[in-house]
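Record type: monomer structure entry
Structure origin: computed from sequence
Chain ID: A
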Amino acid sequence: MCCIMKIRIVIVLVGIVVFTFGMIFYLQGNSLVGPTSSFMYSNPKWIVNGQWIAVIGVLILAAGLGISLRRPRS
């Protein structure tokens, strides 16, 4: 497995993790998951924060997938 493939896998995994955390924060801000004692629970600020974190995760994921779609120059 070449070095670029390893980097691609790491970037894709990081994107998935960041997206997942963003969705959890978004859902906590909307009072849908998490303990009620959390400072994020039912907090509109975390709805917005979670959305942005999820978008950043999607961008990281797209970058990782984009690396695999590029053709090497011959």
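Annotation 1: The chain has one domain: 3-68.
Annotation 2: Helices lie at 3-29, 44-69.
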